[in-house]
Amino acid sequence: METQTQPPNELLGHSSNSGARRQHQHQSQIQNQHQNQQQQAAAAHQHQNQQESKNQVALKIGLIGDAQVGKTSLMVKYVEGCFDEDYVQTLGVNFMEKTINIRSTEITFSLWDLGGQREFVNMLPLVSSDAVAILFLFDLTRKSTLNSIKEWYRQARGFNKTAIPFLVGTKYDEFIELSVEDQDEITGQAKKFAKAMKSSLIFCSTSHSINVQKIFKIILSKAFDLKLNIPEITNMGEPILVYQEN
User: Fold this and answer.
1) What digits encode the pLDDT tens for the residues 179-197?
2) For residues 112 and 114, what is the distance between their CA atoms, to the nearest angstrom?
3) Domain around 45
4) Same domain, yes or no, for 101 and 36?
5) What is the pTM of this model?
6) In this structure, are 40 and 114 located in the same domain?
7) Residue 136 in 3-state DSSP?
8) HSE (side-chain half, CA atoms, 13 Å) at 87
9) Closest by alpha carbon to 214, among 225, 199, 197, 201?
C-alpha cells in the first residue's frame, strides 16, 4: 500500500501566504479603482456646479451697411482673429458667435451680418430685432457708403428703437492714404452723423487690427453700464475713437 507523501509544512505555509498576498493585492486594486471613480465623480460634480454657478449672458449684435464695406471681415476678425483679403459676398445673413469669460460671467456675442445688397433688406428685421447694439458700417474711402447710413439707420430703428448705435468707419489703413482734404471732409461728416444718431464713432482697420477689439469692449461697457479706461481719440488723421456721452 502506497503512502501519500505530504508536502513539507514550510511549502504549505509559503503557498498559503502567496495566495493571501494575491488576494490582498486584488482587494487593494479594487479599492484604488473605487477611490479613483469617486474622485472623478466628485471632480465632475464640482465642474458641473461651477458651470451652473456661472452667469450666462447672450448679446446680439447687428452689423449693417452697404456691400463691401467690411462687415463680414470685422466679424471674422473679432471671432477668429484672422483677415481674408479675398472678398466673398454675403448672401442674406451671416452668423457667428464668440464667448468670453469675465469673472463669474460667461458672455456670448451673437453677431448677425446682413448682406449689403438691397435685395436682402427684407431680412433686416432678422438682424436688428432684439439686438443690444447695432453697428452701422461704412467704408472710409467711399463717401457714398457714409451717405447710405441715413437710410440704414432709419430702417433699422423701425425694428429696434432701443439698440445702442455705433457708427463704424472701416478700412482706416486705406483712408490715411487719401488727401488731407478728403480725410477732413469725411471725418467731419462722420462726426455730424454720429452726433445726430447719438452714436459712438469709431474708425477701424481689420487688416491692421486697429480698434477692432475696442469696439466690443465699448459695447460691453455700454450694455452693462461699466466704467471703461480706453482713451478717446479725436485728432484728425488718427483712428477716431469717440464713445463717451457728452
Assistant:
1) 999 999 999 999 999 999 9
2) 7
3) 19-50
4) no
5) 0.76
6) no
7) strand
8) 7
9) 201
- Hey, what amino acid is at 42? A
137 inside domain:
yes
Provide the Cα torsion 212, 62, 219, 57; round to 10°.
-120
Q: At 61, is the secondary structure helix, strand, or coil?
A: strand
Q: Are residues 24 and 74 in the same domain?
A: no
| 3-state helix vs strand vs coil in the chain, percent to 5 | 45, 20, 30
CATH code of the domain in which 223 resides: 3.40.50.300
Q: CA 34 → CA 30, 125, 135, distances in Å?
A: 6, 56, 55
Whether residues 33 and 121 share a domain: the answer is no
Cα–Cα distance list, 55 to 49, 118, 216, 222, 227 (Å)? 12, 39, 19, 18, 20
Residue 127 confidence (pLDDT) above 90: yes
Q: Which of 35, 50, 65 is the last residue of a domain?
A: 50
pLDDT at 104: 86
| pLDDT tens digits along 145-170 | 999 999 999 999 999 999 999 999 99
Tell me the backbone φ, ψ of residue 58, rounded to 5 degrees. -115, 130
